[in-house]
Each structure stands twice: as structure tokens, then as C-alpha cells.
Design brief:
heterodimer, A: Helix Hairpins, 2 domains, 10 helices, about 0% strand, disordered C terminus, B: mainly alpha, Helix Hairpins, ion transport (chain A), disulfide bond (chain A)
């Protein structure tokens, strides 16, 4: 009773802090996107023009070329690629540093994914990138941390669960399991299917991309929205960035909840009907609490 | 004491065995495919060369497209077919690649192209990343132990506690920046030919595990490297990762403790009622306490440095909070 009142007040406070943290996080990303765009777009345009000139020159001379000229040309293509310029197109290709793509880039920096298919090539961009990551990465950690703990303590606490009547336990556990399953499907299984369809990858490749991204390894061999032959809607990469953040938040939430739900299932199993099992759900009694770190109030 | 040393050695050995096994398997899975790909690209180049006399613009455009495809797949078609001897998946490169997976740096200059390689990569990372976290945890412990010893040394010379904490933190920051960011930058300037700024940029991007891959050590074709160059770089990365994890951990805790302070201030100002105040105290004990954050370190790598706060080991808490208190 008093506990419920206190609980709701605490929840409101927690909610408002979560919202302000979310706002700060989004602002940080938007700000980073704008600054990266400012720093890098011009240099990219220059690289692109330079490469186009080289290509034209090669084209003009193709009647009197030799092997060395060819080698030089191949090297030029490689350098263009490393700068993020697509060699096979022409100067009307969309910029890699328009706002939506910069937002995506800022997101890959603060989540430490770092694909690398795009990276700051100006010196100012690189220095800014260092400071941006220095504060962005802890901000990202705090944000995901907060999301995870907040939602977990709201969803379930083991000590109250242990004292509830059995039917309540069953309903709550099933509800939680359903929530986890649906969320996992929506955030971890469905998006790779969408990406494979849009990008023309196989489903295996889509899943590989999703795994490499959400584990923050981020090779950059598969990146959404970078195929020069395809036409994407302008907010495609921003939506991908949103998916990445949601996916990471989901992992932060789900990974500890999973074992807890399993634990609850095990306690609900018919063999475990003795009354002592209810009291058995305490931090000292079951060794599982060391690994699951249940939000138990001490 | 002896038991923990055995534990550490066991961890070290299993960590390296895991990496070595991984690199051998990747090598086995990827070498053949890469060889085929390289051959086809060189043949395309040779065919183009033969036609040099009577090319059309469409031919050139096609050639550029083919080349782009090759570059995207990681083949850099410079030189001629004798370059085939130089493997992208030799043991040294493969080992480095495996390291970039488990540390989640993920440069991407090398990545699996076969389906088998990609599946193995997923499974390997699934177990390798937690293993790496545990390993880095140990290394981080060693680092903070060093700082604590320094603190005790200063204290035994009669300095006040707050001052020793501040000095220890300063020492930690300054030596860390010099050793892990400054010194490598100088070294890379002479071995890789980068500017100092580029060296620092590379060092930071690597140690924060962002790992773009625009700068990578030891892969420039024209340069001669001493044989242990990459091994030394790997050791630097290992300790640097632990140091930067501690650094980020400090920053994170600083941000989180700001949250606590705001809550306390609200409580003191009486905006939260008495009952809520009581539950706030309970909530502070229950939720944002360090114990809560352990689950995140099992997450596939993204908030790896949070694990530092999570140990129930009291000594562990003292070590990291030792560094933290000087910040607050």
C-alpha cells in the first residue's frame, strides 16, 4: 500500500530521467551528424571530382596506354574506394555525408561498431571523431545501462514473485516469456529478413550482418544502404541506425532476463511443488543469482 | 595466492589456444576461395590489358565496375599473378583477424567471404567475446592493482587520503595517455609513415574498439616490418583495451553518480515525499548499484567496460572505486 504509492512516485522519477537521457542521447547523435557532415562533405566532393578527372584522363588516353598506366589506374580506383567514393558511378551519386548518412555514421561511432566503409578523411574530422567518441561511448553505455535496469526492475522482481500464488506466477512467467519472444522476433529475426530483401543478400548474409553489427564488431563487409546500384529511400540509413540502437537496448534488457525466466519456469515445474521452494527463491539459496543479478532490494 | 596464479595462467593459456585454433580454422575455410577470386580478377585484368589497343568507353566502364567489385570483396588487384603467393589468410593475418573479432574491434580489412567462414565467425564470436571480456577483466585488475600500490606507497609517506587518490588518478590518466596513445603514435610515425595525428587517431579508434579499418598496422605492401612487429602491437592493444575500459568506466560511473546526486538533492529538497524518499533509498540500493550492471558484460561486447563495476568481490569494488572517488 505505502509501498505501491512509493513505487509509483519512484517510477515517475525514473521515467523522467529515462526520457531526459533519451533526449540527450538523440541530441548528441544529431549534433555529431551535423558536425561530421560539415567537416567531411566538402572533402568528399573534392575526392570525387578528382577521381572523375582521373577516369576521364584514362578514357581519353585509352588508345595509347600501357601496363604502367593501367596499374596506376587500378591504384586510383582503390584509393577512391578507401575514401568512400564509389568508382563505378558518376558525380551524381548521392553523397556519403548527407545528414541521414552522417547520423548513421555518428551512431556507429558511439556504439563502437565502426564499420569503416566510411570514415573521416579530413584531419579535423579525425580529431573531432576522437573527442566525439570519448564522450559518446560512455553516454551510450549509461543510456543502455539505464534502459536495461529500469525496464528489468519494472518487469519482475524475484522476491515478490516467490511469494505470489501459483496461478499468478504462471501468468507472469508466461507473459514475460511471450514478451521476450515477440521482442526478439521483432528486433533480431525480422530486421535481417528485411535487410536481405532490400539489399539483395541471402538470409544467411543478412543474419551474419545483424550479428556482426549488434555484437559491435562491425567489419563493414556488409553495410546497409551502400550498394551503388540500388535506390534507397532517403531515411533508410537513419532507420537502420534506430534499429541498431533498439537492438542493442534489447540485448541489454534480454540477456539477463532470459536466465531469470528459465529459472522461474524451473520453479514452476510440477515436480517442484513443495512449499519450501517458495522460500528457496532467495539470493543465498540459489546459486543462479550470482549470474543473473536479479534486482533484489537489500 | 598460488591458486589465483594458476587460475590466471590457465585463463591466459586457454585464451591463446582459442585464438590460435580460430585462426587455423579460418585459414582452412577461406584460403581456397580467396585464391579463386584473386585468379579471376587477375585474369580479368589481363584480358583488359590485351584489349588495350581497341577499347571502347563501355569496356572501360565495365572494367571499372569489375574492379570495384573486386575491391569490395577485399581483393586489391595490384601487380600481376605472381602476387598470388602472398596470401591474405596466412597464419599471421588470420591470427590478427581472430583477435579483431574477440576484441570486437573488427577492422574489416579481412573478413570471411565463404558461407562456412561466416557461420564459423558467428559461433566463434559468440564464445570468444565473453572469453575476451573475462580475460580483459583480469588485465584490468592488474592495472588497478598497480595504481593501488602507488596509492599505498604515497600514503605510507604520510600524504592525506584525498590527495593520494587524486594523484593516483592523475598518474593513471597521464601515464596511460603517454603509453597507450602517445608512444604508439611516435612508433607508428616511423614504422608506418603516418603523421602523429593519424597515429593518435588510429590508437584511439582501435582501443575504443570502434575499429574503422581505414588505418591498420602491418599491412602496407611496400614496407618492411620486423618479424615481431605485429605481436608487439597485439600486446599493446591488449593492455590498452584494459586501460581504456577503466577510463570509460570512470566516465560512465561519473555520469551515473550524477544521477544519484540529483536523486539525493531532490530528496533533500523534500520534493519527493517522505515515503517516496524511503523507497528512493531502497531503489538506490537495489537498482543503480554496481551489482546491477554485471548482466551487460554478457551482452555481445558492446558495453564491455561496464563489467568493471560488476564484481561482487569487495576487493574489486575497492579497487575501481578507489580510482573513482578521486573523480567525485
Amino acid at each position: 500500500m505505502a509501498r505501491d504509492m512509493a513505487g509509483s512516485g519512484l517510477f515517475d522519477w525514473r521515467c523522467s530521467w529515462t526520457l531526459s537521457l533519451l533526449l540527450a542521447y538523440l541530441c548528441y547523435l544529431l549534433l555529431g551528424a551535423a558536425i561530421f557532415q560539415l567537416l567531411e562533405k566538402q572533402a568528399e566532393a573534392q575526392s570525387r571530382n578528382q577521381f572523375q578527372m582521373e577516369k576521364l584522363r584514362f578514357l581519353e588516353n585509352y588508345t595509347c596506354l600501357d601496363q604502367y598506366a593501367l596499374e596506376r589506374f587500378v591504384q586510383v580506383i582503390m584509393e577512391a574506394w578507401e575514401k568512400g567514393v564509389n568508382p563505378a558511378g558518376n558525380s551524381t551519386n548521392p553523397s556519403n555525408w548527407d545528414f541521414s548518412n552522417s547520423f548513421f555514421f555518428a551512431g556507429t561511432v558511439v556504439t563502437t561498431i565502426g564499420y569503416g566503409n566510411l570514415s573521416p578523411s579530413t584531419e579535423a574530422g579525425q580529431i573531432f571523431c576522437i573527442f566525439y567518441a570519448l564522450f559518446g561511448i560512455p553516454l551510450n553505455v549509461v543510456f543502455l545501462n539505464h534502459l536495461g535496469t529500469g525496464l528489468r526492475s519494472h518487469l519482475a522482481t524475484m522476491d515478490t514473485w516467490g511469494h505470489q500464488p501459483r496461478h499468478y506466477q504462471v501468468v507472469q512467467t508466461l507473459g514475460l516469456a511471450l514478451f521476450l519472444t515477440v521482442g526478439t522476433f521483432l528486433l533480431l529475426i525480422l530486421p535481417p529478413m528485411v535487410f536481405s530483401h532490400v539489399e539483395g543478400w541471402s538470409y544467411g548474409e543478412g543474419f551474419y550482418f545483424a550479428f556482426i553489427t549488434l555484437s559491435t564488431i562491425g567489419f563493414g563487409d556488409y553495410v546497409v544502404g551502400t550498394d551503388p546500384d540500388k535506390h534507397y529511400i532517403s531515411v533508410y540509413r537513419s532507420l537502420a541506425a534506430v534499429w541498431i540502437i533498439l537492438g542493442l537496448a534489447w540485448l541489454a534488457l534480454m540477456l539477463p532476463l532470459g536466465p531469470m525466466v528459465l529459472h522461474q519456469f524451473m520453479h514452476l515445474w510440477p515436480l517442484n511443488k513443495d512449499p519450501s521452494s517458495k522460500k528457496g527463491i532467495t539470493p543465498e539459496a540459489d546459486g543462479l543469482s550470482h549470474t543473473t543479478k536479479l534486482p533484489i532490494a537489500i | 595466492m598460488g591458486a589465483s596464479k594458476i587460475q590466471i595462467t590457465l585463463l591466459l593459456v586457454s585464451y591463446f589456444i582459442y585464438l590460435i585454433l580460430g585462426s587455423l580454422i579460418f585459414q582452412a575455410l577461406e584460403t581456397d576461395f580467396e585464391r579463386e577470386l584473386k585468379t579471376s580478377v587477375y585474369e580479368m585484368k589481363a584480358a583488359f590489358l590485351r584489349k588495350l589497343g581497341d577499347l571502347t568507353p563501355e569496356d572501360v566502364e565495365q572494367f571499372v565496375e569489375n574492379l570495384t567489385h573486386a575491391v569490395r570483396r577485399g581483393i586489391y588487384p595490384l601487380g600481376n599473378a605472381t602476387e598470388l603467393d602472398h596470401d591474405n589468410w596466412d597464419f599471421s593475418n588470420s591470427f590478427f583477424f581472430v583477435g579483431s573479432i574477440v576484441s570486437t574491434i573488427g577492422y574489416g580489412t579481412l573478413s570471411p567471404k565463404t558461407a562456412g567462414g561466416q557461420i564459423f565467425c558467428v559461433i566463434f564470436a559468440l564464445f570468444g567475446i565473453p572469453l575476451n571480456l573475462i580475460f580483459l577483466h583480469r588485465v584490468g585488475k592488474t592495472l588497478s592493482l598497480l595504481c593501488e600500490k602507488l596509492g599505498k606507497c604515497l600514503q605510507s609517506q604520510g600524504m592525506k587520503q584525498k590527495k593520494t587518490k587524486f594523484l593516483t588518478l592523475l598518474f593513471f590518466l597521464v601515464t596511460g595517455i603517454l603509453i597507450f596513445l602517445g608512444l604508439p603514435s611516435v612508433v607508428f610515425h616511423s614504422t608506418e609513415g603516418w603523421t602523429y595525428n593519424e597515429g593518435i587517431y588510429f590508437a584511439f579508434i582501435t582501443l575504443s574498439t570502434v575499429g574503422f579499418g581505414d588505418y591498420v598496422v602491418g599491412v602496407q605492401p611496400g614496407k618492411q616490418y620486423c618479424s615481431y612487429y605485429r605481436a608487439l602491437v597485439a600486446i599493446w592493444i591488449l593492455f590498452g583495451l584494459a586501460w581504456i575500459a577503466l577510463l570509460f568506466n570512470l566516465l560512465t560511473r561519473f555520469l551515473e553518480d550524477t544521477e544519484k546526486k540529483i536523486a539525493e538533492d531532490l530528496h533533500k529538497m523534500g520534493k519527493v515525499g517522505r515515503e517516496n524518499g524511503r523507497s528512493l533509498k531502497r531503489f538506490q540500493c537495489a537498482s543503480p548499484s554496481p551489482n546491477e550492471t554485471l548482466p551487460l558484460d554478457t551482452e555481445e561486447g558492446s558495453q564491455k567496460f561496464v563489467f568493471e563495476t560488476a564484481e561482487k568481490d569487495n576487493r574489486e569494488e575497492k579497487e575501481t572505486s578507489f580510482l573513482c572517488e578521486a573523480v567525485l
